[in-house]
Amino acid sequence: MPIRMDRRLSLAALAITGLALGGCATSGLFHDVPDETTPQPAYPNVGEVPPNRPQPPLTAEEQARAEAELKALAASRRKGVERSLEADQ
């Protein structure tokens, strides 16, 4: 008798699993997967050297000015934080 019950339970579990997997396959989980016949984009040539820029990113003067502005901004923020910490005490 126990063998029949085990067999029935295993068949029921197999049927439920099959229905669940069948439902997942038709639920549209794979709707973004391209067909095998869709042409794939070409890989970039990693050995190719990019062309030179038309002009340098920053001149030495522009870089020095940018660094000075950033240092001034950092100093003003640091002073603001110090003032707020002093006010809290």
Automatic annotation (TrEMBL):
Give positions of region: Disordered.
32-65
Recorded hits in PROSITE patterns, A to Z, give:
PROKAR_LIPOPROTEIN
Which keywords are on file for this protein? Signal
* N-terminal signal peptide: 1-25
Recorded protein name is DUF3035 domain-containing protein
Q: According to the entry, what is the taxonomic lineage of the organism?
A: Bacteria, Pseudomonadati, Pseudomonadota, Alphaproteobacteria, Hyphomicrobiales
